[in-house]
TrEMBL record:
Binding site for GTP: 226-231, 245-251, 270-273, 358-360
Function: Exhibits a very high intrinsic GTPase hydrolysis rate. Involved in the addition of a carboxymethylaminomethyl (cmnm) group at the wobble position (U34) of certain tRNAs, forming tRNA-cmnm(5)s(2)U34.
Pfam family for this entry, one: MnmE_helical
CDD domains on file: trmE (cd04164), TrmE_N (cd14858)
Organism: Buchnera aphidicola (Hyperomyzus lactucae)
Regions crossing the membrane: none
Subcellular location as annotated: Cytoplasm
Cofactor(s) the protein requires to work: K(+)
Cofactor: binding comment: Binds 1 potassium ion per subunit.
Protein name: tRNA modification GTPase MnmE
Residues holding K(+): N226, T245, I247, T250
């Protein structure tokens, strides 16, 4: 899909800099080269050039690069001009280029959108450009690059290919009645179901990890009132986000803080103190605290270490019992250790993790940070990609449809019904890579990009 309109934008950050770069894409790029440079430069070769105004007077000097269609970023003719990074020079050059007919300023993300529409990138790769620009940790950068290089797309395409192969097999039998379905096709379907199920579970786990990298690992800080939860939030986030007082029940709602702990993106969530109370507002806060705990990736349960050891042990046992989800990582943070004069360290007791700290003095907090990082880095991240909520949603839709198809096949063994379900699954997955996509979806995705991308 080659556009009739030619677009231009500055692709370097606005403001003063050593170099400023303009990108022009579309059918008029050749005219821009002739008008501004006096000629079309040699393809894919950096050429020292003079940038001219309409009266052939020099506006600037720099490098020009010419990428003829289809071997370019967008699949169209592309010209890049690299001049001095003065905002005034950039503005004058843009005005000069806009004075040529049928050229306009690019919209946010329009270069990437044209790359997608012209088959240079799929939708996952296009989104990965934006994710790479906005990445805040090294792990996020690596995951974004995995997606940009097409690794995530191949992962999805492998599953689509298995589904297509099954569709081909069953649709070749579509004219037979239910009584005439032979054993061979049943074996093919059952074998394919097993393979598809395995692929879906692997993709779902990978996408969950990729979504964690994008949105941050959810770490809930929980505990009884006045145990030091809010103080811990403040010291981990290097900011006085939470109000800290000696009055029990000060924190009554969820308080969020996005932090980078040794290159691990985390969303810290401070919660109301867990206790029985007659206060209606505080009780609502406690309900929300438990909801947050059950949706978290890691719970830092803060305990006042000055209370009796037997009570500490009972608090730990009761919390683990009430949690009822063994997949959530729990670390018991023994706060106020400076008041009991015991070592600041990490201990493993009866399968539970304990770290002694002082949120007041900061002692032991570095041990806690290293513990959080160690848990995250122990997970296998070699094949992780950045996953957006859109990807998670589409995979959930596809997987739920597959489970329904599997159930219907067991009960009815109807090939036509199975073929229709496989078609729906294929469409859900195809919307991830952009094989099937609406104009509204594309507008929503690319409008979030910066201008020049």
């Amino acid at each position: 899909m080659i556009h009739n309109e030619t677009i231009v934008a500055q692709i370097t950050s606005p403001g003063k800099s050593a170099v400023g770069i303009l990108r022009i894409s579309g059918p008029q790029a050749k005219i821009v080269a002739i008008e501004v440079l006096g000629k079309i430069p040699r393809a894919r070769l950096a050429t020292y050039s003079t940038f001219l105004d309409e009266h052939k007077k020099v506006l600037d000097k720099g490098l020009s690069l010419w990428f003829p269609s289809p071997h370019s970023l967008t699949g169209e003719d592309v010209l890049e001009l690299q001049g001095h990074g003065s905002p005034l020079i950039m503005d004058i050059l843009i005005k000069r280029i806009l004075s040529i007919n049928n050229i306009r300023l690019a919209k946010p993300g329009e270069f990437s959108e044209r790359s997608f529409l012209n088959g240079k990138l799929d939708l996952i790769q296009a989104e990965a450009i934006d994710d790479l620009i906005n990445a805040e940790t090294e792990s996020s950068i690596r995951a974004s690059l995995n997606s940009l290089q097409g690794h995530f797309s191949l992962f999805i395409q492998d599953l689509i290919n298995i589904i297509i192969k099954l569709r081909v097999n069953i649709e070749s039998n579509i004219d037979f009645s239910e009584e005439e379905i032979d054993i061979n096709i049943k074996d093919i379907i059952n074998k394919a179901f097993s393979e598809i199920h395995h692929k879906f579970l692997k993709i779902k786990q990978t996408v969950i990890e990729g979504n964690l990298l994008k949105e941050g690992k959810k770490i809930v800080i929980a505990g009884f009132p006045n145990s030091g939860k809010s103080s811990l939030l403040n010291i981990l986030s290097y900011n006085d986000r939470a109000i800290v007082t000696d009055i029990p029940g000060t924190t009554r709602d969820l308080l969020y803080s996005h932090v980078n702990i040794n290159n691990i993106a985390c969303e810290l969530i401070d919660t109301a103190g867990l206790r029985d109370t007659d206060n209606e507002v505080e009780r609502i806060g406690i309900v929300r605290a438990w909801e947050a705990i059950k949706k978290s990736d890691h719970v830092l349960f803060v305990i006042d270490k000055t209370i009796e050891k037997s009570r500490q042990k009972k608090i730990c046992a009761d919390f683990i019992k009430n949690l009822s989800n063994n997949s959530i990582q729990v670390t018991f943070v023994l706060n106020k250790n400076d008041l009991v004069n015991e070592p600041f360290n990490f201990e493993k007791k009866e399968g539970l993790s304990f770290i002694s700290i002082s949120a007041r003095t900061g002692q032991g907090v570095d041990i806690l940070r290293k513990h959080i990082v160690k848990i995250e880095k122990n997970k296998n991240k070699e094949s992780v990609f950045i996953a957006r909520r859109r990807h998670v949603h589409q995979i959930d839709l596809a997987y739920n449809e597959f489970l329904l198809a599997e159930k219907n096949w067991i009960f009815f063994q109807n090939i036509e019904l199975l073929a229709e379900s496989l078609n729906i699954i294929n469409r859900f997955l195809g919307e991830i890579t952009g094989r099937f996509s609406s104009e509204d979806l594309l507008k929503q995705i690319f409008s979030s990009f910066c201008i020049g991308k």
